[in-house]
Design goal:
Layout: H1 8-20, H2 22-30, E1 41-46, E2 51-56, E3 59-60, H3 62-73, E4 78-83, E5 92-95, H4 96-112, E6 120-124, H5 129-141, E7 144-147, H6 154-164, E8 168-172, E9 175-177, E10 180-182, H7 184-192, E11 202-206, E12 220-222, H8 223-227, E13 239-240, E14 244-250, E15 258-263, H9 264-279, E16 287-289, H10 296-308, E17 313-316, H11 327-335, E18 339-342, H12 344-352, H13 356-359, E19 368-372, H14 378-388, E20 395-398, E21 431-435, E22 447-454, E23 463-464, H15 468-476, E24 482-491, E25 497-502, E26 506-509, E27 512-515, H16 516-524, E28 529-539, E29 543-552, H17 560-571, E30 580-583, H18 597-604, H19 621-628
Parallel strand pairs: 4-17, 6-7, 6-8, 7-14, 8-11, 11-12, 16-17, 16-18, 18-19, 19-20, 29-30
Antiparallel strand pairs: 1-2, 3-13, 4-5, 9-10, 14-15, 15-23, 21-22, 22-24, 24-25, 26-27, 28-29
Helix pairs in contact: 1-2, 3-4, 3-10, 4-5, 6-7, 9-10, 12-14
The structure holds adenosine-5'-monophosphate-propyl ester.
The site of adenosine-5'-monophosphate-propyl ester (PRX) has 23 residues, from helix 10, strand 19, strand 20, strand 24 and strand 25.
Length: 631
Amino acid sequence: MDWRINSMEDYNQKYEKALNNPDAYWGDIAKSFDWFKEWNSVRSGSIQDADMRWFDGAQLNITVNCLDRHLKTQPNKEALLYIPNDPSEEATRLTYKELHAEVCKTANMFKSLGVKKGDRVCLYMSMVPELLISVLACARLGAIHSVVFGGFSAQALAGRIEDASCTLVVTNDGGLRGNKTIELKKITDDALAMKECACVKNVIVHKRAGNEVSMKEGRDHWWHDLMKDMDTQCDPEVMEAEDTLFVLYTSGSTGKPKGIQHTTAGYMVWAAYTFANVFQVNKDDLYWCTADIGWITGHTYITYGPLLNGATTVMFEGVPTWPDAGRFWDIVDQYKITHFYTAPTAIRALMGCGNEFVDKYKLDSLKVLGSVGEPINEEAWHWYDEHVGKKKCPIVDTWWQTETGGILISPLAGITKLKPCHATLPLPGVHPVLMNEKGEEIMEREAEGNLCIRNPWPGMVRTIYGDHERFKNTYLSAYPGMYFTGDGCKRDAEGFYRITGRVDDVINVSGHRIGTAEVEDAIDQHPEVIEAAVVGFPHDIKGQGIYAYIIISANAGDNIQKEVLDTVTKFIGPIAKPDKIQVVKGLPKTRSGKIMRRILRKIAAHEFENFGDTSTLLDPSVVDEIKEGVL
Ligand code: PRX
């Protein structure tokens, strides 16, 4: 891999080359992958036309690059180290050869149920090896995977299944997380009973928890029954560079979740390139990303990125606080993890449990630490550095999004100078710009503005599944010719970037994106709620918490708060439950009926001064009432 950056000087050169001659830069990098057919052009299309294409004309299969390619050089290297929830249960290890065989068998199993190129397959599973295997099996066949995080409710699952018209759902009987069992099959049954899911023909159930489940004749099949007769060879489907690899749903500021659509070749190059350069994982290292495969981090940095690089990826089934708050560190010492990648919310939660849980571990195998998903605050950064990294491990604060496919702004481990809480510098191929309120680019170096990216990069989202107009409006219209991230950002005198958080109506709760409109819609489903307004507020552990203001009818009972929580759990899932629910008589609205969220956000944060211009409020007295009742 001669494209691995090895010094700051090298970074500067490569950054310039990628900026000035992107075709040559990315064309050279792409040559180190296996293709059935080479591309006609490296880059084509444009943001202006909402048509970004990379490696057009090329044909490939990403699993050939994740698996087959390594069979020639390192068939017996561990590809996957799987650590079960229960510490007394033994880890599972799969070599590249074994993983290849499992992926082929699984692809053959999907094929036996009629799955073919272009079909959508929903994976609603807990963190079992079969999830990672199913992702790759879909890619082997050219079927589009849509992984739905196991914390979403039946209703949320049904909406995602319907949106992509999935024909197959793969699930587990139950997911093991700490001392809880998440009844995934039961939730799947509830979803499939809804009219939205008429498209589903088959369900495969992988047995993990051993809990009782019901199996519907003709529709439901046990994984272990079907797998018995499957062959360990499965020819990879020939995919065009811009064929869709996967869809992953994420929340926006309005409307229902968006199916973010990524394509094959560009995503592959970006996943491999960013993994290699940001983490600098070497041959004998052991890399562990603690995310769930239900989120983009688990797609790019548990599954595709590490395997494309021939690394060993660690997958953990459980939670950081069970059996106790030392579980992560116990795993690090036991397996000698060298690279550890987690979210600030986990760091803050563990920090809050007391240093005794971390200080008793050696953690001397660690070389690199990573952070992702939300801004990391100063205190958490230093705790991570001192107690986990023992002040000898660089922390890569990686900024990116579901839409970006992979990391865009981050230090490169051991290469870039670190600055706490700063994502620092863009990767080669990424051209960040800060825009002001008037839609102009801010040219000063030291500045704050809305973060946009000029020029497409290979791993960029191509569209929203089934709704290209929405795609254009959401990302490409606010600042014509650029991709708008939805994030606010500061740039310092050295040109280092610091992400300050969302500037739209998206809340980042424990690193999970939740749209305020979605939570409001869910709350509104309660028959006694007349109106709801949801905002984020600063939360010590979660980064942001969810604050809901609700207007209720005279018929509402004393239990309304609890009922609202249940309603949100039903329509979205427990991850979207408000932390605080304040019953109010009115909401601050403008004469045109728009809720002034700015005021609600301030009150939720207990900032009672400087509400700005309130002269357009229809009834300014509601503000005082809300202030008085703040929680
Ligand atoms: O606000 C940014 C925040 O997470 C958002 C993207 O969320 P999602 O698509 O769920 O992907 C999360 C994993 C990549 C961004 O718009 N975010 C992500 N990483 C950081 C961050 N905020 C600050 N610093 C980060 N390192």
